[in-house]
């Protein structure tokens, strides 16, 4: 999963990364049985033109298959309207390039574009709620609890053992 974001919400990638990877990165169902198949996927991304020459190239020309979310704000939230116009054009062009790949290639990406007219607290909260809902629903479909943290808790236990026993390696 990839995000390309306007600079006003550039930290959103890290937030979604923590939400989805921690919540869906499970190997056991709520009944204790092992999960069959994959739960979730890696979340990574960036903002602006930095993305164009790294992972967008890889997504367009590479052999991967993934889902891509491209999010942008129509109003820039700063005084650089010419720059924002260029960035919006690039975001739309990247989305089109990802969808309009060579039809003979077996590789593809699912692309979602989300255009926010203006970044406000309400719109940011709505965007966050949408991803939280997605994570909760995927947890239900996978049969996992997306909000428990067995891996984190195990790491804490190991940390305490190492802290209390300097000879433990």
Protein described:
By secondary structure, this protein is an alpha/beta fold. The chain has a single domain (2-164), classed as Rossmann fold (3-Layer(aba) Sandwich), CATH 3.40.50.10490. Helices cover 47% and strands 14% of the residues. The protein is built from six helices and four strands, in the order E-H-E-H-H-E-H-E-H-H. Strands 2-1-3-4 form a four-stranded parallel sheet, sandwiched between helices. Helix 1 packs parallel to helix 5 (121-142). The protein starts with a strand and ends in a 5-residue tail after the last helix. The model has no long low-confidence stretch (mean pLDDT 84).
List keywords for this structure.
169 residues; 47% helix; single chain; Rossmann fold; four-stranded parallel sheet; 6 helices; alpha/beta
Q: Layout of helices and strands, plus pairs?
A:
Elements: E1 2-5, H1 12-24, E2 44-47, H2 49-52, H3 55-61, E3 66-73, H4 81-99, E4 109-116, H5 121-142, H6 150-164
Parallel strand pairs: 1-2, 1-3, 3-4
Helix pairs in contact: 1-5
At a glance:
The protein contains 6 helices and 4 strands, in the order βαβααβαβαα. It has 169 residues and is α/β, with parallel strands linked by helices. A 4-stranded parallel beta sheet has the order 2-1-3-4, with helices on both faces.
